[in-house]
Amino acid sequence: MLNMHGLVLCACAITTMTPLIVASDLPADSDDMTLWYRQPAEKWLHALPVGNGRLGAMVFGGIDRERIQLNENSLWSGGPIDPNNPEALKHLPELRRMLFEGRYVEADEFAKAHSLGTPARVKPYQTLGDLFLEMSAVKEAAEYRRELDLATGICRVRYRVGDARYTREVFASAPDQVIVIRMACDKPGRVSTTVRMTRPGRPVCESVGDSTLVMKGRCDGGEGMAFQARLRVLNEGGKVEASKDSLTIAGADRVTLLLAAATSYRGGDSEADCVKRLASASRESYDALRERSAADVRGHMGRVKLVLAPADDAVKALPTDERLEFVRKGGDDSGLIALYFQMGRYLLLSSSRPGGLPANLQGLWCEEMHPPWNCDYHLNINLQMNYWPAEVTNLAECAQPLVDYLDSLREPGRKTARVHYGCRGFTAHHLSDVWGFTVPADGVWGLWPMGAAWLCQNLLEHYAFGGDRVFLEKRAYPIMKEAAEFLLDFLVEDPQGRLVTNPSHSPENWFLTPEGKKACLCVGATMDLEIVHDLFTNCIAAGEALDVDAEFRAKLAAALKKLAPLQVGRHGQLQEWLVDFEENEVGHRHMSHLYAFHPGNQITLRGTPDLAKAVRASLERRLEHGGGGTGWSRAWVALFWARFEEGDLAADSLKVLLTQSTEANLFDLHPPHIFQIDGNLGGTAAIAEMLLQSHAGEVSLLPAIPKSWPAGSVTGLRARTGLQVDVAWKDGQATSATLKADQDRTCKLRVPRGRSIKSIVSEGRPIEVHSIEDGCASFDARAGRRYELAFQ
Fold first, then answer.
1. Residues 306, 324: contact at Cβ < 8 Å?
2. Which SS3 state, helix, strand or coil, does residue 99 take?
3. Which residues of 427-443 are buried (b: 16+ CB within 10 A; e: fewer)?
4. What angle do CA 579, 581, 585 make, to 5 degrees?
5. H or E element at residue 192
6. Bridge partners, 146 (sequence order)
7. CATH architecture assignment, domain 2-77+125-298
8. One fold for both 2-77+125-298 and 712-791?
9. CATH entry 2.60.40.1180 includes domain 712-791
């Protein structure tokens, strides 16, 4: 972004000096819902995010010059194309023959030449641009504080210059669909600023009338999507003067800036959309806009509260970046873990709202025109991981964009299934975009048609947590069935008569052939088999619940019986490939073959102990050789340890996530220094998994509490059985729990280690508890009732 920044300085002919900031003497009133800092952001990765699911902004908090970087989630380069390769199907039999014969290196080259899409790449998600506020030169500022309140979604900057105290607030309103910036001073007539907007690619930037600024253009040199950002000034006191490409406010008491943005992605008129939204928001007072937006965010963020044993008061009083540095130097700060947890929930809420697009690799926030990996949708873990915390942390509606997006891939995915493989149903490969890209891309490793099938897991998860039968019947099951139809046709028999995928690939990993050569494509990679098992099993369960498609269910059941089995390799590990190859990179970041343990449930700690032991051997082998080196990968490691009920090891991985893969603004990092939101959301899911699990047919309370969290409480988490769960603990032991049932059902509970249920009371009456072997108990729950548990 330095180049863009340089262009802005040149275009605006501005020279500024960074004002001296005197250390704040404000009370350190930070809590575990607030990020705060003593200084403005020096770079994008230090800025603070606001978002309403569609519009996003990164707030730098400058004193004499504020930069607010902008995003609109549908602003992508490119457009609808047909990238299917008509030659792929013709060469598929030969490719399969090569792989069955073990000619792996030759198969890689053959597939690269004949099997990829045309083109084999997607266009990028892009920045909307920047909003700059140029204030009067400030030599010295005192009592500076920059903060983001996760409970309300308001980013706030405060400082004092002389006898005047300045406040600036920024938020992205979901109810009013605008970004709101408020500038105020406690001395009248002291608010003055010049407002500009800019973006690479030479968009039109012009003032319209005395109080409106417009930036508009089209992507791809004028050939692509139309976009517009429109800003209106509402000043209290002072005056506003317009120049060709800026607005100058002088001598105001307070100023409210309203910014609307839109694109032509959904077929609308971006200008008309902006004008309409600004007109509506302008009729409201700032206080009304602020409270409506804050109430909306509170209504979501307030559903779950996590309290961990507080760090030393002196540590908790530190700014967020200093708390992070304290942990990097070996300190413990459980309060920072709670803050990180809530930051993940906030990022998901801010980047994924009903009616919009799902969170991409950076969620909503992207400052570049050509970001790493195009800021696209990666379907071989990253997009799925984005939504792992949605259900359990009580943000189920945030998953709706993912459902809508997967549904939108069905039509293009049908053509890819037919053109590339001669199959029914629909498929998608390892990456996609907003234009329906479903073909193999990037390189030979892109020949992995399991992306849609994996995404189907999120559909049944939504049903498992919420029990919405209409959703299952009308939305989830039709998509799952069509993805399963593809896999039924795609599976082929190997020489032993087992059903396998061919071609196959373990995402982004390479193996060594018996001749010691590096290869990518194979037959029946373990993750493929696990995804097939997961989708077919879920389709059978959904069909039974809906009492439909008995014949189709029988076909799925028959295929499951012939599916190649999971195997244990020479190192005691769960094999990553059907053949026990040596890994090219033993510590690879992807741990795809462990899918059946998490996020799947084909392998469980108690249900399949031998396979669970092999999973652990695989995990330990990866870590011994440097695995878990990216943020998202380390988050997945924490989730694995949580499933093993190894709280201390899960906490260790969370600490690695914070110390090695987290920026000052708590953004997750991928090497070398790239923001990827999946690590944030995977980390949040891992914390929830340490507190509550429900994947093995039982609700497990506090399954992986580490020694570093000796006391705490969590309220509002959700379990797959339709329960909302509150639980508290002290000295590492559960003290109480409250369950609220959404459905009538028998609840099977696994109580925390070392405890048993003393009583369950509902509406003042004791509830009969049935003992089950292996430390579990059950009781009959009724929808709408609360159940209070006491332990002994």
1. no
2. helix
3. bbbbbbbbbbbbbbbbb
4. 145
5. strand 191-198
6. 37, 157
7. Distorted Sandwich (2.70)
8. no
9. yes
H/E stretch holding 729 reads strand 723-730
Distance CA 505, CA 578 (A): 11
Going by C-beta distance under 8 Å and a sequence separation of 6 or more, which residues neighbour residue 287? none
Below-70 pLDDT ranges, the chain: 1-18, 20-31, 311
Which tens digit of pLDDT belongs to each residue from 138-189? Answer: 888 999 999 999 999 999 999 999 999 999 999 999 999 999 999 999 999 9
Q: For 65-91, what is each residue's pLDDT tens digit?
A: 999 999 999 999 999 999 999 999 999
* Distance, CA of 717 to CA of 727 (rounded, Å): 9
Q: Please, where are the H alpha helices in 184-316?
A: 219-222, 270-282, 286-301, 313-316
Q: E strand or H helix at 460, and its extent?
A: helix 451-466
Running DSSP on this structure, what letter comes out for residue 18? P
Longest Cα–Cα distance in the chain: 84
Instruction: Tell me what pLDDT residue 27 has.
Output: 38
**Inter-residue contact 703 to 642 (CB < 8 Å):** yes
Q: Which residues pair with 207 in a beta bridge?
A: 213
The domain spans of the chain are 2-77+125-298, 712-791
β-sheet with 757-762: strand ranges across:
305-308, 712-719, 723-730, 733-741, 786-791, 757-762, 765-766
Q: How confident is the model at residue 749, as a pLDDT?
A: 96
Reading the block at residue 278, the tokens are 């600004």
Distances (CA, A) of 269 to 261, 272, 355, 781: 11, 5, 18, 51
Contacts of 101 (CB under 8 A, 6+ apart): none
pLDDT of residue 29: 42
Is residue 790 exposed (0-12), middle (13-18) or buried (19+ Cβ within 10 Å)?
Answer: middle
End-to-end CA distance of the chain: 58
The whole-angstrom separation of Cα 64 and Cα 136 is: 6
Task: Return the structure tokens found at 369.
Answer: 């025109």
Return d(Cα 779, Cα 774) in angstroms, integer: 16
SS3 for 362?
coil
The structure tokens listed for 634 are: 């380390």
For helices 550-562 and 526-546, angle between their N-to-C axes, nearest 10 degrees: 150
What tokens does 686 get? Answer: 């891992």
Q: What residues form DSSP beta bridges with 352?
A: none
Answer yes or no: are the C-beta atoms of 238 and 189 closer than 8 Å.
yes
Contacts of 88 (CB under 8 A, 6+ apart): 114, 115, 116, 419, 420, 421, 440
> In this structure, are strands 431-432 and 254-263 parallel, antiparallel, or unpaired?
unpaired
Instruction: Note whether 529 and 559 are within 8 A (CB).
Output: no
Q: Which long-range contacts (CB under 8 A, 24 or more apart) does 397-400 make?
A: 397/353, 397/354, 398/348, 398/349, 398/352, 398/353, 398/354, 399/352, 399/458, 399/462, 400/354, 400/355
Question: Which string of DSSP letters, residue by residue, matches 642-693?
Answer: HHTT-HHHHHHHHHHHHHHSB-TT--BEETTTEE-HHHHHHHHHHHHHHHEE
- C-alpha to C-alpha distance for 556 and 40, rounded to whole angstroms: 57
Query: Please, which residues bridge with residue 511 across strands?
Result: 519, 583
Q: Mutual orientation of helices 410-421 and 88-100 as an angle, nearest 10°? A: 60
